[in-house]
Amino acid sequence: MQIFDTTLRDGAQREGITYSVADKLAVARLLDQFGVGFIEGGWPGAVPKDTEFFERARTELELKNALLVAFGSTRKAGVAAADDAQLAGLLAAQTPVVCLVAKSDVRHVERALRTTREENLAMVADSVTHLRSHGRRVFVDCEHFFDGFRFDPDYTASVVRTALDAGAERVVLCDTNGGMLPSQVGAAIADLVARLGVSPELFGMHAQNDTACAVANTIAAVEAGVRHVQGTANGYGERPGNADIFAVVANLQLKLGMTVLPDGCLEQMAHVSHAIAEIANIAPDSHQAYVGSAAFAHKAGLHASAIKVDPALYNHVDPAVVGNDMTILVTEMAGRASIELKSRELGLDLAGHPDTLSKVTHRVKELEAAGWSFEAADASFELLVRQSLGEQTTPFTLESYRVIVEHREDGAVVSEATVKLRVRGERVIATAEGNGPVNALDQALRQALERHFPQLSGLELADYKVRILAGSHGTDAVTRVLVETVDTDGRDWTTVGVHENVVEASWRALVDALAYGVAAAGGDRKVRSRR
């Protein structure tokens, strides 16, 4: 089975993605780490950035698993292959493999290329022969294959036959418009095999995702005998995207039992997926199959009860085989099993404390009903469990805090906060200004605590979210605040606060964040980075 990745060419056509040459080199290294066999790097000669990529790749890339592929079109109509500038650019890229795109829908031949059926066949044959004569392995992407095959199967099949006869190693059947369904893909391949009398192993599959069937269509093609599949990291691509190469590979290896990656590479999947998302500057899809942070997240108490007995009862595969983790979500749906499993995940074993387990379960349901959400706030949940176990989790006692917001005559708005605390037997008063009441409160709290807990200087408030809870209205609405904090080691955690007053809700989340940070810096917490 050939695994052909086109993240750097087709995937880069997604709206919002603009790779620099350095980005493309970094993505290529990650794809090679994942173990794909072919990495399509772009269109040399047509795109200057891609030309530079191939030039730099020759000296800067040391690929262990993959071969680089240059992509381009067949020769122009009426131009000899030896004189065609596009083919010259492909040869200049010096890749061992070239992928040519060819028209296989007669409507595109006549209306887009504005040439004859016969000339199009000659363009395919001449281009493949020319590249093969220079020692290149050649794949041919038959653009709009499925649409063309439905319209005029005889002509589309003749394009495939021409490419094979000229020496193409694989002819890739492209669902360019993404309109096919799995049953249609399987039927078309069976028909093509019968017409040409060749093995389906000579064909490849390239699926777009316009019907949300790109992965399913790719698997259907493999089940029809195809032995070359194309896709992109995270399904990036034009319009709704391409077949997600990670889902395709995982399905082939874990569901169909086909060994398609070198040993040890499948476990790199989640890491590679997220790293490429960072380079593309696109937030990872938490609900993406196999690699998303929620791919193995369980919320219902019924699930947790079964998982406690055997994780395989509610996981279709072991998350570890694709480099992911199982997560138990704590919500109002949580039962005792969910609370026990989540606590164990955080390093706390409540199995030997049945009374505490019942107490925490009841308290979580009570707080969730009041608007709290522990699903995204593991740190606040852990603090709640530790408090229930009798631990002192807050390193100070609040006497009072006060926040003043002053709107001055010149239009300036200044926030000032004062906190009065008792820390290790000492009464501490601190005042600070900020660009808003929450920022001022955060600064004052840190100022009051940092002399006793210098590790707080390394903590940074990374994100602050405010949400008005459903069913509440106007300025007296109940507010939920989520605070994300990060330390100098890149570890991050989220805390939650709820109150009718947004400042009080923020205060509660801030206190949990700093309390958790103090303990984490002291080695008392199993902080797990999500980065």
From TrEMBL:
Protein name in UniProt: Citramalate synthase
Family according to the record: Belongs to the alpha-IPM synthase/homocitrate synthase family.
Domain Pyruvate carboxyltransferase: 1-267
Lineage: Bacteria, Bacillati, Actinomycetota, Actinomycetes, Micromonosporales
Organism: Catellatospora aurea
Domain of life: Bacteria
EC code: 2.3.3.21
Presence of the UniProt keyword Transferase in the record: yes
UniProt pathway: Amino-acid biosynthesis; L-isoleucine biosynthesis; 2-oxobutanoate from pyruvate: step 1/3
Keywords: Amino-acid biosynthesis, Branched-chain amino acid biosynthesis, Isoleucine biosynthesis, Transferase
Coiled coil: none
Pfam family, one: HCS_D2
Record's keyword annotation contains Transferase: yes
PROSITE patterns, per database record: AIPM_HOMOCIT_SYNTH_1 (PS00815), PYR_CT (PS50991)
UniProt catalytic activity: pyruvate + acetyl-CoA + H2O = (3R)-citramalate + CoA + H(+)
